[in-house]
Amino acid sequence: MLMTTTSTVEGRPVAQYLGVVTGEVIVGANIFKDLFASVRDIVGGRSGAYENSLRDARETALKELADEARALGADGVIGIDLDYEVLGAQGSMLMVSASGTAVKLG
């Protein structure tokens, strides 16, 4: 499955537009990750726990997007947009959403 943030694929014209596809993931923050991240923020550096959670959520959202496109018979998704949103009480959850246009490429 070819997936891109661009609206075209060089050398591969769009033969058919199949519709908008999406993938969403909501992950809750873990108290131990929060505690560790707070310590890292105080002493500086990066929070590996949060970075890994964010990476996993993004990859899962993109996999769901590709699965939905595949179910429509697509061989590509163009114009992919990734959005991140903090939800819940005191920002206790993170939502990652991916959307794009499923296409058949020529």
From TrEMBL:
InterPro entries: UPF0145_dom_sf (IPR035439), UPF0145_YbjQ-like (IPR002765)
Species assigned in the record: Sphingorhabdus pulchriflava
Highest taxon of source: Bacteria
Family affiliation: Belongs to the UPF0145 family.
Pfam families in the record: YbjQ_1 (PF01906)
Protein name, as recorded: UPF0145 protein DXH95_13100
Residues annotated as transmembrane: none
